C-alpha cells in the first residue's frame, strides 16, 4: 500500500490489519511525503501515532510527521535520526516490504515494542522486549525458521568461556569462545554475567574493558540453543534476570566495549548499553532476528534506540542487513572507529 499525506490523514492506513483468519495483511504502508496543507499534515500526524501498521515515509517532509512515522527513506543527502539516506529509496522500500511480508507478526511486534518503550526506564523496557520475544517464540514464524534449521549440534562445554584480568582499578573481560565466534550461548552468558557482577560489587574497579578473543567480538546468540528453554515464562526470566544487558547498562560510563568483525544480534545489542563502544575498521553490525520470526532479545530494542533512535533501529532490524563501522559512527551506534 502506498498513500499520500492526505490519504493518511483520511484514514487510508487504518483498515483492519487482520483478515478473517487472524493473518496480518498489508503490514507496511509507504507514505509519499510530498508537501501538503498544514492542517492536513496535522491530521496525518494524529493518524500516524495511532496506526497499527508500519509507516515508512519516502522523501523529505514535515518534522512532526516524520517523527510520528516509523521510518523515513530520504535521498542521498539524508536527514536526522528519523531517516535513512538511500541512493535508491524505491529499492530500499522494496526490501523493507519484503522483510515485513516474510515475517509480518515479528515486524509488527518489533514496531510496537519500539514505540511502546520509547522513553521508558531501561529495566521496564527490557521487560517489554522480553514479553514480546516470548510471545513470538510461540508463533508460527519462529516455528517455520526452527524447522528449517535441521538437526542441532550437540552442546559442548567450554572450559573458560570468559577470561578476566585485573590491573589496579581496571578489569578486563574477554569473551573466550573464538571457535564459535564468541556466540552468546548459555555458558558464555552466565560467565559474562558473573564477571560483570564482580565489577558492580567491587568499588575498587573504576573501569571495565570488554572485548572478544579471535577475529569476531560476538556473532550473536548460539543458534543451536534457540527455542530450547523449558517454557516461555522461564525463557522470559532467564533473558531479563540472568542476561547481561541490565548489568552493562548499570556500569554505564565505567565500561568500554571493543568490537570487531561481524557483530550480530547480541554482538551489538549488549555493547550499545555501554558508556563507550570502540570499533575496529572491519566491524559490521547486523540484527537478523525478524527473519527468524523474532525480535532482538538481548536488549537491542532498548539499547540501540538510546543511541540511534527507534527509526534507524527499526530499519536495521527489519532489513537484517549489515551496517559498516563508518556509518555506525555517523549514526552514533559506536563512539570511535580505529584505523
From TrEMBL:
InterPro entries: ClpP/crotonase-like_dom_sf, Enoyl-CoA_hydra/iso. It holds the Pfam family ECH_1. SUPFAM superfamilies: ClpP/crotonase. Belongs to the enoyl-CoA hydratase/isomerase family. This is Enoyl-CoA hydratase/isomerase family protein. It comes from Actinomadura napierensis.
Amino acid at each position: 500500500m502506498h498513500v499520500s499525506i492526505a490519504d493518511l490523514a483520511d484514514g487510508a492506513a487504518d483498515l483492519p490489519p487482520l483478515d478473517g483468519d487472524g493473518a496480518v495483511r498489508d503490514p507496511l504502508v509507504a507514505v509519499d511525503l510530498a508537501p501538503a496543507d498544514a492542517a492536513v499534515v496535522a491530521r496525518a500526524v494524529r493518524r500516524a501515532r495511532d496506526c497499527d501498521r508500519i509507516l515508512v515515509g519516502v522523501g523529505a517532509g514535515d518534522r512532526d510527521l516524520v517523527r510520528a512515522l516509523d521510518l523515513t527513506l530520504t535521498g542521498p543527502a539524508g536527514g536526522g535520526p528519523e531517516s535513512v539516506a538511500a541512493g535508491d529509496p524505491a529499492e530500499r522500500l522494496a526490501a523493507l516490504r519484503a522483510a515485513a511480508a516474510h515475517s509480518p507478526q515479528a515486524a509488527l511486534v518489533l514496531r510496537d515494542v519500539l514505540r511502546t518503550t520509547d522513553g521508558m526506564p531501561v529495566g521496564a523496557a527490557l521487560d517489554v522486549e522480553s514479553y514480546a520475544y516470548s510471545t513470538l517464540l510461540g508463533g508460527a514464524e519462529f516455528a517455520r525458521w526452527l524447522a528449517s534449521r535441521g538437526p542441532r549440534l550437540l552442546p559442548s562445554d567450554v572450559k573458560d568461556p570468559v577470561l578476566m584480568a585485573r590491573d589496579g582499578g581496571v578489569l578486563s573481560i574477554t569473551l573466550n569462545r573464538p571457535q564459535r565466534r564468541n556466540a552468546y550461548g548459555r555458558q558464555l552468558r552466565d560467565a559474562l554475567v558473573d564477571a560483570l557482577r564482580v565489577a558492580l560489587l567491587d568499588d575498587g574497579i573504576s573501569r571495565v574493558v570488554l572485548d572478544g578473543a579471535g577475529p569476531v567480538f560476538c556473532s550473536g546468540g548460539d543458534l543451536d540453543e534457540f527455542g530450547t528453554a523449558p517454557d516461555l515464562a522461564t525463557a522470559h526470566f532467564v533473558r531479563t534476570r540472568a542476561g547481561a544487558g541490565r548489568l552493562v547498562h548499570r556500569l554505564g560510563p565505567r565500561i568500554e566495549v571493543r568490537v570487531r568483525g561481524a557483530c550480530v544480534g547480541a554482538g551489538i545489542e549488549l555493547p550499545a548499553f555501554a558508556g563507550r563502544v570502540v570499533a575496529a575498521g572491519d566491524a559490521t553490525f547486523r540484527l537478523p532476528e525478524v527473519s527468524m520470526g523474532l525480535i532482538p532479545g538481548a536488549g537491542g530494542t532498548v539499547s540501540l534506540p538510546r543511541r540511534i533512535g527507534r527509526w534507524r533501529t527499526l530499519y536495521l532490524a527489519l532489513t537484517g542487513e549489515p551496517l559498516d563501522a563508518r556509518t555506525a559512527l555517523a549514526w552514533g551506534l559506536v563512539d570511535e572507529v580505529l584505523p
